[in-house]
Every structure is written in structure tokens, then in C-alpha cells.
Amino acid sequence: AGRGVRRLLVLLSLLGALAASGSAAFRRAEPFTWATARYGSGDWDSAPLVPANLVHSIAQYTSIPVAARGVVVDLASPELFRYPFVFLTGHLPVRFDARESANLRAYVERGGFVFIDDHNHDVDGAFHKSATAEIGRIFGARALRPIPNDHELYRAFFRFPDGPPTTSHELNGWGDNLVHEHLFGVTVDGRIGLLYSNKDYASEWNYHPQNKRFQSIDNTRFGVNVVVYALTR
Question: For the whole model, what pTM was predicted?
């Protein structure tokens, strides 16, 4: 499916219609539902408060109709295709089995958007090394590439002129003691279908939404950009 078809699939999904793409379909997923991927290895549920926090942000800042609670979807399940956006994170080594690998590739190639975030923020960490190796195995060794910091992702809703916002863990020297200047992506027909972060947004966003009132700047705003990009590009 081309870029225009993917946009149509997402729009129809948001309207509650059924849109088919080959042998799979993005089925009724209206209002927008934050979906977290469950996979067989590692600790897929390491950031349990992220969905509630981002659901709150999307409802607060945008006019996108949003479900009050997120869902958990198995990476190997056909149910994955009900959701135009899926979040995946963890601390531990990740190894996708054959069904998970095939489903992930089909999901991205047919217009889905998956955001994978390293919950370790450690360039030599178990999750980072294994997840990037798995992405290379599934999509090709050179498929995962740096995303320019002037990419439209950084102006999809809020503006981030310097590219991906830093996290408190980066600034405090936690993990690998580096500030990662770029995110990475697998691009299909000019659109990011898989976004990979080594910045540990999972830790940054893993708190109750009510705690935002203690912050001078809401650090979940970039998550809003990611969702808006996923639904409109």
C-alpha cells in the first residue's frame, strides 16, 4: 500500500470503519487507543504508567478522540492491526519469535506505526543491542537510519527545533552518560513506520498525569507529536 492508502486506512480507523490492506486490516479503533505491545521475551510491561499519562496529554492538547484507557496487544496477534499506533519498550534482552517478527514487519509495511523506546538509556545495554539487532534482522541491516533533527516529526504538533527533546536521565548522566542527538527510524515510502529511541522516554513518561502540575514544561509533549505524526502521515 502507498502513502495515500495508509493515510486512508488510519482515517477510516479513526472514524470507526473497516479498512482492508491485503490479508490484514486496521479495524475499528475509534477513538484513538494507546496500544502497548506484549512480546514473549524481556519485560514488555516495564513502564505501566506511560499509557495513562500520554492518553491524558493527547486529550489535553489535541482534538483527537481518545479512549480513556490503553490496551495491551500481543505482537504476534492479528489484533495488532486494529491499532494504527503501538508502543514497545523494556529493559531486558528482546528476541522476537517467528510469528512476532512476521507480524511486526507486515504491520509496518502496511501502514502501522510502532514506537520502540529503550527503557535503559544505555548504548551498550541489553535492550538496545538486542532490539536494534532484531530490527536489522527483520527489516534489513541498513533499514534503521538516523532521523534528521529538522524532520517533520518535530513539528507535527509542538515544535522541537533542535530535534528530539532530552530526558532527565540523559541530563543527569544516568545510563550511558550520553545525550543522544538523534532518533532512528525505518522508513516505508517516505514515512516513518518504526521509530526507535535510545533516550528512555519510557522512564520520562512513567508517572501519574496529575504530577504534571509540578513541572514547568510538560515533558510528554513530544509523545503527542509522535502520535499525531503516526495518525496523519
Answer: 0.85
